[in-house]
Request: fold
Amino acid sequence: MEWVTAALLALLVPDCMAATRPNFVLLFADDLGYGDLGFSGHPSSLTPNLDRLAANGLRFTDFYVTSPVCSPSRASLLTGRYQTRSGIYPGVLYPGSRGGLPLNETTIAEVLKPQGYVTAMMGKWHLGYGANGTYLPTRQGFDHYLGIPYSHDMGPCQNLTCFPPDVKCFGCCDQGVVTVPLMVGETILQQPVDFVNLENSYSGFATRFIRTAAEAQQPFFLYYPSHHTHYPQFAGWKSVGRSLRGPFGDSLLEFDSTVGAILQTLEETGVLSNTLVFFTSDNGPELMRMSHGGNSGLLKCGKGTTYEGGMREPAIAYWPGVIQPGVTHSLSSTLDILPTFAKLAGAPLPKVQLDGVEMTDILFNHGPGKREAMFFYPTDPSEKYSVFAVRWGKYKAHYYTRGATHSSTTPDKDCNVFAFLQQHDPPLLFDLESDPSENYNLTLKSLPGWVTVQKKIQDLKAAFEASMEFGESEIGKGTDPSLEPCCNPECSPKPKCCQCGTVGY
Reply:
């Protein structure tokens, strides 16, 4: 392990930072479940590049997001703070939302830029558009941006092609709003977006960005929050029909192929050995889509719920020559990515209340890490109900449970939208090591130390809730149709007239 120690000293001693600052690639899938990937045992998913990361990197078994839906989960990832602090609640942001991630919140990109990093993002932002692009990634620390500013189902899609040669998108998506735009920087490039060629554009963008940064010998941060495998699924010529899993599998394969292109570029430019690649997903699978949705494996329920299937995600850290391959059961979260990247880059942390802790002990020593507990908020957190569940060690306590529309259609009645809010006093208690499916509630009879465990979790919950200050709800500011992005802003009638096209990027 001496070579690992030497590498770490070079990375973690500030005086050496100018020569050794690592690059960061952050991969963030959409609505991908714990049981969706090849390395996690899905029999018909085709994910050779993610499997390569898992085989040669550090795979997390107990990794969590902070929300079972998109916008709040992304806010926490980029800021290291629970969404309740930044105001990204309840639910998600829409094309015409007045609010967005507040500009006084500090993102990973804004942490890294003062250290000389060039930053880029491609894919799904979903943290606000606002008046004149107020909340776009370019206003939040990203030098370059190519992508869709919100979820790609937030616009009519029934007449759009999702698979070649001309297979229309499955479903109708949102109606009465503008079609989904593709943006470069703060300019709309296409409206509606060309789904068939979208991933080619992303792959080319990533390749150019990495090559340019490598040639300039400049450290870089690339954030790729993919649209795959959110509804409606789509894929281009290279992936359509190639998997055994149908449209979902083809969509997943296309995402995996872009991961492969990024890895290949890192290798070809000679920077792979100085790049930390981190992969995870924003929330659990949308089970209501049935075969057009993901799979949570052995975990209970999925998107929209605070059960394990809604917020426990696959995750991998890959850094050849620095991070030893293996598996960690250490409790970790997307909250911990910002402080980890900051430490490795020699960057000071934002002067705000952070909820994340750095993970270098886990990454480099396969140690237990610093995270003591994880707190689970529903899609609509409130000070009245506060935390729905708490995980401490191997135990998870549910103070409230509720099903969700996103997780309907499964045989488990607890997942369904008609499983209304239920308070549990005493809380339900599960041993997630022996019962990750949350099937068997522990009692004083089945767990002799039940009282001690319950008290410890209750104390952690009380201390956390005392530290929480709810920010003003950005989503509660409502929507204004005039804020929806339109490539022809003066045209009429909207939204039908908002159309423009540029082939490729």
